[in-house]
Amino acid sequence: MNEQIAEPKLQFRVQLSATRRGARLARLLATEQLRSWGLPFEAPAQVIAELAANAATHGCVPGRDFRLAVLSDADTLRIEVTDARGDRLPAPPDAGVRESGYGLILVEELADRWGTCCGPFPCKTVWAEFDLPMWGR
To answer: Tell me: the pLDDT tens digits for 104-131?
Structure first.
């Protein structure tokens, strides 16, 4: 499912530098926003950290930023990270032996669903969703 939340009641959007510092700031800002909304933030913060780090590492184009959006309605929390490398889609996690690249395995385990959307050129968006009713909301 890669449909956006039709009419999010809560929205937070920020554009950040595609650097390690920008990725860290994405996690910190989003965590505080989720906390102010009264939503659980531990698992979403880890997913935001992974997606933002991927945007800064693999989606980085010199001089181009990445965007973070955190959207919520009564049932779903959606995280979107958009970077400038639409030509580099994330590979699905596998259980093979590897030395790095465990971030998407973590995203797959923590989020209820995740995926990618291409565009607008040259960008791509990696998104993850959490079902809020499961959190007692």
So the answer is: 899 999 999 999 999 888 889 999 999 9
At 62-108, the pLDDT tens digits run 778 999 999 999 899 999 999 987 777 777 666 555 555 678 899 99
Q: Among candidates 64, 62, 67, 63, which has minimal Cα distance to 23?
A: 67
Tokens representing 99 are 């030395």
State pTM to two decimals: 0.85
Q: Report whether 1 contacts 113 (CB < 8 A).
A: yes
Q: Is 40 exposed, middle or buried (0-12, 13-18, 19+ CB in 10 A)?
A: middle
Non-local (6+) Cβ contacts of 109 within 8 A are none
Q: Is the Cβ–Cβ distance between 66 and 91 less than 8 Å?
A: no
Q: Which of 18, 19, 3 is nearest to 123 (CA)?
A: 18
C-alpha dist (Å) from residue 119 to 31, 64, 93, 102: 27, 15, 22, 25
On whether the CB atoms of residues 8 and 50 are closer than 8 A, the answer is no
Alpha helices (H) along 4-102: 20-37, 42-57
